[in-house]
Amino acid sequence: MREPEFEYDIIVVGGGSAGLAAAVAAYEEGQCRILLLERDHELGGILLQCIHNGFGLHIFKEELSGPTYAERYIDRLHALPIAVRLDAMVIDISPDRVVTYVTPSEGSVTVRARAIVLAMGCRERTRGAIRLPGFRPAGIWTAGTAQRYINMEGYMVGRRVLVLGSGDIGLIMARRMALVGATVIAVAELMPYSNGLARNRKQCLDDFGIPLLLSHTIVDIRGKDRLESVVLARVDEKLQTVAGSEQTLEVDTLLLSVGLIPENDLVEATGVEICTRTRGAVVSDLFETTIPGIFSCGNVLHVHDLVDYVSEEGEKAGRAAARFAAGHVKTGSTYAVTAGEGVSQILPHRIRLDREPGEIEFLLRVNREYRGAAILVQEDGETIATFRRPVMAPAETQKVVLRAPQLAPVKTGLTFSVVPDSSPSAFTRNRASDAVAREDNPSGEEMICIVCPVGCRLKTHRDDDGSLHVTGNSCPRGDVYAKNEVLAPMRTVTATVRIRGSRYPRLPIITAQPVPKGKIFSVMDALGSVTVDAPIAAGSVILRDVAGTGVDMIAERTMPRVESQDKS
Ligand SMILES: Cc1cc2nc3c(=O)[nH]c(=O)nc-3n(C[C@H](O)[C@H](O)[C@H](O)COP(=O)(O)OP(=O)(O)OC[C@H]3O[C@@H](n4cnc5c(N)ncnc54)[C@H](O)[C@@H]3O)c2cc1C
Rounded distance, CA 392 to CA 375, Å? Predict the structure, then answer.
């Protein structure tokens, strides 16, 4: 057998937000030899194409764009003695922690580590996965592929667009297409509810007048070379198409945002046990898989809604891997964590019986929208803890923390389920005040608050003296939000401009402060003629006082200069 050529304490596979956080935390924990392998030619993963803002509210307490969030972790990584191989595609991982990767410069390389952290992200479900009927013309893209083409590679994918799937990626791409000049006919969704966050429904669809067609699916695709139209139909509560509800929509582009799947082919081949609910590895409270010394985190473990949770998970997996590599972790007996009634998935799957005392964070998802419900944690039918939640939706991860005294007596297993919450809560009070507001002020403006996931239904009304009042909010931030939305709605605009001399032809930029909502398209128009030259540093001003708003547009990321590859 061929001997491994190098030895590392830890190998991290994947340089997205999970892998970056894992590598940094592993070094900080163990000051050990770490190798990070990334198949792309730069670090950052999916974040580099997510040029919109909304990242980092938990970790950095500010709203960042994807590239800016990534750059903060990349800078931290480069400040440490961590080996990085780019263009390095891992093709095999053996149970005894031998990793084989290939690069254009080194060919095939085999390395062995004491511990491995898997952080390979996820991939999008395609047309084949949802069995869309009809012809197979050009113009049908997964939303993430279209996002990369538009935001990084500088291609326009179409002009008249239908988006299928109302998760966050679908909503964000509907807005992006509208911003870059396409007509977005609608976002169609099979389920009777949207899988996206309330803030995205509001800022991506409502702002641009894009209809959301719930309980709809595609029953035919027409067009031979290029997509010409799709036939959409309503579905009933059993998700069966309703005869006679078909409508033909003339579109040249269909964007599919129909789910993400953890990128686990390598892991399955290694023999790691896979969870049928998450489609990622089964892990313990250390994020260790069923093969000792192999850890998993981020979207390869389960699909996350927030990058902050990905980074936190990466840090935990990285620290655990460093302790394992130093010989401080022994794999012993565990008990199971089970998803009960109303819970579609939960992590971690297993808890070590001999773990050091301390709290554990559980991440779970519910199977439908719940209003005024609670998460119940039980062992053998006996309740250990209850967590009241005013609103829970399948799209949002619920974080639940059990403290050491709650965990200490547990020996056989934990079950998490959702039960109705009959106790009076902030939410029920909201509903009551909302109803009163509606009755008293039938002409008031209604909106869903997007400040936090609670999603209060706000209503504004004016007194005879013209002063504005808000009802339905459960905290003062809702009051401020609703008044701003009525009096002077503001939005952060993200876009790209042409850049010369860089690896990619588009540079992502962002307004340094929010601009009036009515100025969004003036801002976009002002960018059409802008071209900059690499190198560009993150934060550089690209355009001052854009569209007369008094606000500057700044670069979201650093773009180094790259000598032309063109030999002609
Ligand atoms: C379109 C979109 C919009 C989003 N919007 C938001 C938002 O507004 N706010 C928010 O908080 N979160 C958002 N998220 C979620 C968040 O950005 C992601 O969950 C997170 O960035 C995933 O990080 P990751 O490291 O697990 O995966 P990735 O970023 O996908 O990184 C995985 C890395 O592993 C590499 N890799 C894979 N296989 C191999 C291999 N065999 N060998 C070597 N390398 C490999 C890949 O090239 C990639 O770089 C969004 C996600 C998407 C897709």
Answer: 10
Q: Hey, whose CA ends up nearest to atom 48 of ligand 1? A: 45
Contact status, residue 109 vs residue 200, Cβ threshold 8 Å: no
Distance (angstroms) between ligand 1 centre and the Cα of 42 equals 13
Q: Residue 289 is encoded by which pair of tokens? A: 């898989």
- What's the CA-to-centroid distance between 70 and ligand 1, angstroms? 10
Residues with CB under 6 A from ligand 1: 13-19, 37-40, 45-47, 50, 52, 54-55, 89-90, 119-121, 144, 147, 168-169, 172, 263, 266, 298-299, 304, 306-308, 310
> pLDDT digit string (tens) for 163-202?
999 999 999 999 999 999 999 999 999 999 888 887 888 8
Q: Return the residue matching tokens 């009076």.
A: 424
Q: What is the mean pLDDT of each run of 10 residues along the chain (568 residues)?
A: 68 98 98 97 97 91 94 98 98 96 96 97 92 91 97 97 96 98 97 86 93 97 96 96 97 97 91 96 97 97 94 98 93 92 97 93 93 94 93 88 94 95 46 37 68 77 88 89 91 97 97 96 96 98 98 97 65
Please name the residue ranges forming H helices in 271-339. Answer: 307-325
Choice from 147, 307, 347 to test ligand 1 binding pocket (greatest atom count within 8 A of CB): 307
Indicate which atom in ligand 1 lies nearest the CA of residue 91. 41
CA of 427 to the centre of ligand 1 (A): 34
CB atoms within 10 A of CB 166: 27
Per-residue buried b or exposed e for 219-241, using 16+ beta carbons within 10 Å of the residue's own CB: bebebeeebbbbbbbbbeeeeeb
> Which residue has the least CA distance to atom 38 on ligand 1?
120
For residue 299, report the distance from its CA to the centre of ligand 1, in Å: 7
Q: With contact defined as beta carbons under 8 Å apart, do 216 and 233 qualify? A: yes
Nearest CA to ligand 1 atom 22: 299
Report how far ligand 1's centroid is from the alpha carbon of 121 (Å): 5
Predicted TM-score of the model (pTM) = 0.91
Q: What whole-number distance in Å separates Cα of residue 277 and Cα of residue 546?
A: 47
Q: Judging by beta carbons within 10 Å of its beta carbon (0-12, 13-18, 19+), is residue 173 exposed, middle or buried?
A: buried
- The label of the residue with tokens 């999970």 reads 18
How many whole angstroms from 356 Cα to the centroid of ligand 1? 31
Using DSSP, state whether 317 is helix, strand or coil.
Answer: helix
Instruction: Determine the distance separating the centroid of ligand 1 and the alpha carbon of 46, expressed in angstroms.
Output: 4
- In 3D, which of 120, 525, 498 has the Cα closest to residue 302? 120
Residues 6+ apart with CB under 8 A from 102: 88, 89, 91, 108, 109
- Provide φ and ψ at 473, rounded to 5°: -85, 145
Q: Residue 285 carries which side chain, given as an amino acid letter?
A: D
Counting from 1 in the atom list of ligand 1, the atom nearest the Cα of 122 is: 30
Would you mind telling me the total number of residues written for the chain in this entry?
568
Tokens in use for 347?
């992590």
How far is the centre of ligand 1, averaged over its atoms, from the C-alpha of 357 (Å)? 32
| E-only strand ranges, 315-412 | 334-339, 343-347, 350-352, 360-366, 370-379, 382-392, 398-402
